[in-house]
């Protein structure tokens, strides 16, 4: 990465590049200029070039970007050339929706178990995966070399779960509980309602019909 620290804003745009390039590949597009890519992504060409130059550039003057090559490079930067083991704590609506999301498996994210405290579902299976008691979480992570822990449990339990995951050696945490948690590992706090609130703001800006 040219020895430079990549800004958070650039990192947040990487999945957008990945999705756009994947779409272009499916359409059979072989090459694209920074101007064309910028137009499709509602960015400006200099921003696209600056973003990609953080990782080496990949383009050729007068040619642009080779779509398939750039897609592979972005996938590699995002770590999508390897597989990750995931566990989900919270086997309710969000947990069940996540475990059945086909996109995870396609990109190498493999859920291996769910955890809960509800005795009615502990010991059962969801999408062919075991639902274990949360008391077994630390041992399971340690014994199975789990990479990522997903928190979809009660708000009051979120920080304790994050602490348990980190203590067990988890590499990263994805938190869906509507409260921020902290940990000494890479962590993403996902607030599902935030996008809806932004949409509400934009509707409010337009004024009433």
Written description of the protein model:
The protein is α/β, with parallel strands linked by helices and 209 residues long. Helix content is 44%, strand content 17%. It contains nine helices and nine strands. It has helices at residues 8-26, 34-41, 45-53, 67-77, 93-99, 102-106, 137-144, 158-167, 192-206, and strands at 31-32, 65-66, 84-89, 109-116, 125-126, 129-133, 148-151, 172-175, 187-189. The strands form two sheets. A seven-stranded mixed sheet has the order 5-6-4-3-7-8-9, sandwiched between helices. α8 links the parallel β7 and β8 (172-175). α1 packs across α4 (67-77). The longest helix has 19 residues, at 8-26. The termini are far apart.
User: What is the succession of H and E elements?
Assistant: HEHHEHEHHEEEHEHEEH
Weakly predicted, low-confidence segments = none
| Strands side by side in the biggest sheet | 5-6-4-3-7-8-9
Query: Distance between the terminal alpha carbons, to the nearest Å?
Result: 49 Å
List how many beta strands DSSP finds. Answer: 9
What is the average of the pLDDT values? 92
- Please outline the major beta sheet: 7 strands, mixed
Please work out how many helical segments DSSP would assign: 9
Shape: globular
Q: Helix coverage percent of residues?
A: 40-55%
- The chain-level structural class is alpha/beta
Oligomer: single chain
Strand content: 15-25%
Radius of gyration: 20 Å
